[in-house]
């Protein structure tokens, strides 16, 4: 099972909808995604990502055998943080625990660091999401600390962890 990343295609919409139509995944993402998640929702997301500013938003389908099984994005910050970007990702539940998330994070970071001026990529998983924290750690991210009572999700006040990966200096 070989994982890769690639730009989104409109024909990915049914696979994206199937992956995201899962409360276990949505409970670990930020608010704003509908449930149930439909093919129309997926088409709107893909269209938005394809039209996004290519210097600010780097959005990819996570694929296995060229089938979209998840999403990963890196979003550049602004002002004094313009060389910093936030990463978010998810994969379909049937692919959990197979190293795909770690591979996708590594591939995405390599792509961003090689093709942009971004110096720092960070992610903020919920502190209870041990699997996502492990993905980041296995991909080389360091935990910088706990953001106490940093979010409210499903009516619960939650801690988050701050992870980052810094671009290696060029020799």
From TrEMBL:
It holds the Pfam family Acetyltransf_3. Residues 3-163 form the N-acetyltransferase domain. GO terms for molecular function: acyltransferase activity, transferring groups other than amino-acyl groups. Gene3D superfamilies: 3.40.630.30. It comes from the Bacteria. Keywords: Transferase. This is GNAT family N-acetyltransferase. It comes from Variimorphobacter saccharofermentans.
């Amino acid at each position: 099972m070989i994982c890769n990343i690639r730009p989104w295609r409109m024909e990915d919409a049914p696979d994206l909808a199937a992956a995201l139509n899962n409360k276990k995944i949505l409970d670990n993402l930020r608010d704003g995604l509908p449930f149930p998640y439909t093919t129309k929702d997926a088409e709107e997301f893909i269209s938005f990502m394809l039209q996004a500013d290519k210097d600010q938003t780097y959005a990819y389908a996570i694929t296995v055998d060229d089938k979209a099984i998840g999403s990963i994005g890196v979003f550049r910050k602004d002002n004094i943080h313009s060389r910093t970007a936030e990463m978010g990702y998810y994969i379909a539940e049937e692919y959990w625990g197979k190293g795909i998330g770690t591979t996708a994070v590594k591939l995405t970071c390599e792509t961003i660091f090689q093709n942009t001026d971004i110096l720092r990529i960070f992610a903020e998983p919920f502190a209870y999401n041990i699997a996502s924290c492990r993905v980041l750690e296995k991909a080389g991210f360091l935990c910088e600390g706990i953001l106490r009572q940093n979010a409210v999700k499903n009516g619960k006040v939650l801690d988050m962890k701050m992870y980052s990966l810094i671009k290696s200096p060029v020799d």
